[in-house]
Amino acid sequence: MAGSDLPWRPPRPCDYYWSEFRHCKSLRNRFHHYYVYGTFPSCEQWKEDYHMCREWEKIQSTHCKESLQQSERNRVAEQRNFTPVWELRQTPPADWHSPLNQGKPQDS
Amino acid sequence: MDQSKQQEEDYGYNLFPERKTGKYKKGSIAESLFTFNHKCQVMLHLAIETSPYAKLLLGAMKNSGCALHKDRHFSCEDCDGTVSGGFDATTSQIVLCQNNIHQQSHMNRVVTHELIHAFDHCRAHVDWFNNFRHLACSEIRAANLSGDCSFSNELSRFNFGIKQHHQECVRGRALRSILAVRKISREEAEKVVDEVFDSCFNDHAPFGRIPHSKKDAKFAYRDFENRDRYSANL
């Protein structure tokens, strides 16, 4: 998206989509999802993305590309769906690499 | 000939100068302390090298300009009571309680938990000492993402629950952590946790998911390694 000279390719290798689908459908994952959210996960999008990815490999259609991009953008949006409690830094803390001076550790 | 040979060969004892002098009597308290420190160092090293949770956090922090060095940013020490570890924001150090961590799986979890605090310190302006919301948020995230509240860990604490129990556990552990380190009433602490819970529970950085198992963490690490390709083709 941002100034890459390389031709477009799916954001993940196709087998990543398949392994995510299989992992999503597994009994363990279904249990964990219920344990956290009280519902069962929906896994079909991974399968859909896998098929789009494979088709892209065959025919490079715009439809496949847009479908995959939209799916991944939705995933990113889902991960950002909260209002942060704190302000993000532009640079790391200035004293991160400062040498220790035998200060007593406090708890956190 | 024999004498000189013996002097050359010191069986690696030069790596442990305090052992050479025989300072610590076998079975003495002093020797126990030394032994826990060494054990802690070994377990820490294993955690950093093999835990996908730790590897992802270390990689993400390096990416953000906060590369961690074992000698500078980790410290194995004796601690009071039953606390397992802490993050000291004033020295940017993760403290590991060598007297309270005796299993590798526990070490892996504590390292992950404290790395999450360190990660938050690195990427955000977290006011650890004056802002309870910030403290609560980081504790919620650490309990959520480190495996602290996994089903098996909760079972081992005799906390039985299934449907949405994870969230209950995260709330409870965040509350405990806050009460342990700050002079604040339980009611106030509960209020702060409630205020920030929805936001912080849904902040899964840098994992991109709640890693319930090593497999989840490996997938998350895989995504982290793929991040350049991912963002370039979004």
UniProtKB/TrEMBL annotation, chain A:
This is Synaptic plasticity regulator PANTS. It is found in: Synaptic cleft. Residues 99-108 have a biased composition (Polar residues). Residues 82-108 are annotated as: Disordered. It comes from the Eukaryota. Belongs to the UPF0545 family. Pfam families: PANTS-like (PF11326). PANTHER family: UPF0545 PROTEIN C22ORF39 (PTHR28052:SF1). It comes from Chanos chanos. Signal peptide: none annotated. Transmembrane segments: none annotated. The lineage of its organism: Eukaryota, Metazoa, Chordata, Craniata, Vertebrata. One of its GO terms (cellular component) is synaptic cleft. The gene is c1h22orf39.
From TrEMBL, chain B:
One of its GO terms (biological process) is mitochondrial proton-transporting ATP synthase complex assembly. The keyword S-adenosyl-L-methionine does not apply. It is an enzyme of class 3 (hydrolase). It comes from the Eukaryota. Keywords: Hydrolase, Metal-binding, Metalloprotease, Protease. The keyword Protease applies. Belongs to the peptidase M76 family. This is Mitochondrial inner membrane protease ATP23. It comes from Chanos chanos (Milkfish).
